[in-house]
Structures are given as structure tokens and as C-alpha cells.
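quick one before i forget lol
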Amino acid sequence: MAVPESADGQHAADAEGSGIAERIRRKLGSLSPSERRVARVLLSGAPTAGLESSAKLADNAGVSGPTVSRFVTQRLGFRSYAEFQQALRNEIAARVVSPVEVYRRQRVEPAEAGFAGRSGAALADSVLASLQGLDATEFANATALLADTHHHVLAAGGAFSQLVAGYLVGVLREIRPGVRLVPPIAAERAAALADIGKKDVLCAFDFRRYERDTQVFAAAAKDAGARIVLFTDPWLSPIADIADAILPAQEAGPSPFPSLAPAVAVAETLITAVAGSLGEEGRAHFERFGGIADHWIRFWPQADSGRDCE
């Protein structure tokens, strides 16, 4: 969806495709120990932790005031602590904005000449920004986790993102064993948690507005020893605090509704990388799967209907 534009620069922040938490995560490997303490306070605390005074943030992190100032300006690229706080306020407002309010602010264009082309261009921009914005280390971690066939892979999402979770499972199970979709049903998630362990990987899909059930499920899976690969938006689901790999995707598109196209593109790109890592093992599993699927699709209906079912 197009996040509502406002006078305080929210639209410009969205265009960067990088929330503050995501920016911090990308810098973690290059931070000094004292800067890393500031980062931990901002990432592990409430989203409003950065709205405290710089002195209070420095006290909470156990560092000096100049360290906070250098972190915000030199590491995150803000001109001042005040500018950092304004960006954080914009981000928090974007995370909690009501879908009804977004629809009210967004102008829905009538389907006139050139509508499909303009829609396609908007989606293409969002998909490209999502893929180009993926952190190489996070993507490599996610690929390694899903390509390790010693791990079982589970996927779960919310009301709409469950569709992308289902797509990931539908394709991934063709190239490797042990892949399962966990529906957003209490009994199904309870059964999954009863079996989950240290050899499991959970692909969690959680986008604004973030769903408590998915967060609770992911936290329980983490407590049981599972690894977490998180698919989320640039503002980052709270699951990011416990995730082993984070793959953000834009949600902007031509309509006032969140677009799943970028998330699907991220999932497809990850599947392609996993297939490459699996190599001949993945190819052999795909051939076995295809042989069994072809048998059921082509021959079983004939026994009932007496006609070919393509």
C-alpha cells in the first residue's frame, strides 16, 4: 500500500525502504563495543526507547553522550539527534496507522487508459527496492538454514501473509524434504509446538499490523530451540528481536491495500538460492516429487471420469 504522505517527511522515509531498526542491524558488524550497546538498547527495548533524551539513552546503554551522538550521526546518517527522533516518531506512526486511515488518505485511481501499466510500474519499483535492499549476510543465513536438510522447515503467517507462507512451502517441498505449513489455527500451532525442536527452522511471516498470535507462536518456537527466518516489512515485526535471519520486503503498491508482490518476490528469490545450494540433491528430490505428483494428477482422475485431466 502507499503509506500516507505527510508534511513531516514520512513518504520520503518510506522511499528509502529502510527502517531505523533495519539500518541498525545492517551496521552491527562494524560497530564498536560501546556503539553496539546503544544498538542493543534500541533494538531490544520498546520502539520508543530512542525518544528519550540522548543523555537518558546513553545512561541506559552505559555509554557516554558523545558515543550516542556519534552513533546517530556517523553510523545512522542523521544530521542530529533531533532529526533521528523525528524519523523514529514517523516510523512509529507508520507502524500503527490504521488500515482504514490509510484507505481514507490514499487516492484510488479509476481504471482508465494506462492504469495497468502504471500499476505494474509501481509494483516493479517495490519489488526491485525489496530485492536490492536485502542484506547479503541475512540472506545468506536464511539460505543456509533452509538448504540444510537436517533441519525441518515450518512456515506460518497471518491473515494475508499466510498466502505467501503457503507459496514458500508449496515450492520448497518440491526440492527438499521435511517442509510443513502451519495454519493460523490454535490446534495446528499447538501440535506444531509439541513437536518442534532444535533441528527445526520456522519461517515466520509478519507484516503491519503485526499479529500477536504469530509473535507468540514464533517466541514459543524460539524457546524450544528452533531457528527463525523472518519475512516482514521495513519497519520490522517485533519477531525481529529473536530472528536468526530477517528478510524485509516493501508493501507499497498502486492501491491502498498492502501488496504481497514484494514478499512473494523475496520468497521466490530465497527458494532459487536454496535450490542452488542443494544442487543435485535438490534436483533428485524434485524428480521424485514430480514423478509421484504426475502419477496422481494424470492417472487417478481417469479412473473416475474416463477422460484425461490436464
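fyi Confidence is low (pLDDT under 50) at residues 1-17.
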